[in-house]
Model the fold of this input.
Amino acid sequence: MEILAQILSSGIAVGMIYAVIAFGFQLTFATSGTLNFGQGEALMLGALVGLTCVDTLGMNYWLMIPVVCVFGMLQGGLVELIGVRPAIKIKSEFGWIMSTIALGIIFKNVAENIWGRDALPFPSPLSTDPINFLGANIMPMEILVVIGALVMMLLVEFFNRKTIYGKAVVATANDRDAAGLMGINTSLVITFSYALSSLTAAFAGILIAPLTLTGATMGGALGLKAFAVAIIGGLSSGLGIIVGGLILGIVETATGFYISTGYKDVPGLILLLLVLAYKPSGLFGKSAIKKV
Done:
């Protein structure tokens, strides 16, 4: 039971990070049918900017959070403006894929030149002494990761459902052409969805950074796994994103413990292949019917 509790606690913390990043994929897909394949680099930049604020500028961790969130929004808006919008305008079906990948590589190279290639420790805002719960040693930062991830997703849902600007996002997601006819600036809404997407990734970066090392290469694997979570759970389902993240996080942790850390990525990829083969819309996603 102690081992099971340890696996569950660690897996839930990791899975919620995947879910927050995957939530960003869902935001952009809903409004524009596109995905930011540089989402992992947005997480990496958020973590490194946060490290600079805390370690170099001496800023308090909690005061640093809004700074990183604003930076994430600006970075996401830039990606949409120079990488996605031109492809949408010329109706290039896959141009945005290469554009977001290329921008992700550029951001990674910029990060290497500014912060170096070495992984850097991120100071934890909470105690590093583990808390014993049901026999499992849980780091206080892992609890903060789960709470922070849930709060971020709930805030985004509240924004979409209860604010006029959020309703514009929802209207654009439901029918972009109809939203445009109703006077909604759909181009601005798509830009905002990218800004919000990168904000969630940057926030995830500063959540996970104290639990791991921070560096220019930290975003690649996390972004790929978050994309797998988005596909497994379903790009049209917020609940599916959370469930997919928890499944992948727990399965990875269990595989690393019982088999080998060298194989912990395999079960998630196998699950991804099975979902793509038998339920492409995701476990909780809805199949889209297109009239031709």
The longest strand covers residues 131-133. The domain at 2-278 is CATH 1.10.3470 (ABC transporter involved in vitamin B12 uptake, BtuC). The two ends are 55 Å apart (CA to CA).
